[in-house]
Amino acid sequence: MLKQLFDAEKPVIGVVHLLPLPGSPRYSGDLEAVLLRAEQEATSLASGGAHGIIIENFFDTPFTKNRVDTATACAMTLAVKRIAAICDLPIGVNVLRNDGMTALAVAVTAGAQFIRVNVLSGAMVTDQGLIEGEAHELHMYRRVLSAQGSVRILADVMVKHASPLGQSNDIAQAAKDTVLRGLADGIIVSGAATGSPPNWDDLNKVREALPDTPILVGSGANLDNCSALLAIANGIIVASSLKRQGLVENPIDVEKVRAMVKAVNAGHKEA
After folding, report:
1. What average pLDDT does range 211-232 have in this prediction?
2. What is the pTM of this model?
3. 235 with 214: CB under 8 angstroms?
4. Pair 71, 64: CB distance under 8 Å
5. Which tens digit of pLDDT belongs to each residue from 57-77?
6. Could you tell me if 223 and 241 are in contact, meaning their C-beta atoms sit under 8 angstroms apart?
7. What domains appear along the chain, each with residue ranges and CATH number?
8. What is the bridge-based pairing of β-strands 235-238 and 215-217?
9. Do the beta carbons of residue 217 and residue 203 sit within 8 Å?
10. Which tens digits make up the pLDDT trace of 90-128?
11. Cα distances (angstroms) measured from residue 4 to each of 13, 64, 90
12. Kindly report the CA angle at 72 between 135 and 105, in degrees rounded to 5?
C-alpha cells in the first residue's frame, strides 16, 4: 500500500505544522500568513525529496479532544488545496487531537490521499481528557463519502502523549485490534512524546504481530537512527528533526530534508 501511495520502498513523509488556525485560542487573525507559511514548508519538503506530506493543526493547542471548530476545518481545507496546487506529492491530513471525521472530510473535499488518526480504537487518557476511538463511525463516513478506495486511514497505536485506559500496555494486541477490528490501512508507532523515537521492543512487537501490515514510525526519526528504524518499519513520518536548529516551532530546513532522504535511500540500498 505504501509503495503504491508514495512511489517509494521506504517513504519519508514530512509534516507541515500549521500555525494557529481560526477556531484556536492563539489564532493571529491573519489566515493568509498561515497559508503562506504552509506553502513554504511544503515547498521545502518537496524540494528536499520527501515522498509525502502530512498537514496538521499542530499549533492549535490546547486541542479539542474530538470535533474541531468549523472555521478550523475550513482553514485546513484551504491549506490542503493551496499545497496541492504547488506540489504533486501525496498529501495526508491529521486533525488534532483526534478528529478523524473532519480529517476525512477535508481529505475528500480537498483531494488528499490519506489521513492520520491518533486513536482509532480503544480509549486513551490524554491531556485533553479521555479520548475514545470512533472506528465504526469513521469507516461508515468514508463509505458515505465514497472514499473507500481514495483515502487511506493510518492509525496510531499507543499514541504519544497518552496512556491506555482499562487495558494492558500490550502494544502488540492493541496493534492487532487496530488493524483487524478497527480496519486501519496502516499502523503508526511513536515514542512517548513529540520528537521521541519509539521503543525498539515496542516496534519489534508490532512488526511480529502484524508482519504484513504497513508500519510507519511516527516520531523521533533522525539521521542517526533512520536506517535502524527502517530495518523494521516501512516508512517514517518526520517533523522535529527537519526543523532549523531542531526546534519544532522553526520552519523546515530543505537541506535537512535532503540529508534525511539521502540517508534513508542509502540505508535501503545497503539492506
Report:
1. 95
2. 0.95
3. yes
4. no
5. 999 999 999 999 999 999 999
6. yes
7. 11-270 (3.20.20.70)
8. parallel
9. yes
10. 999 999 999 999 999 999 999 999 999 999 999 999 999
11. 14, 33, 11
12. 40
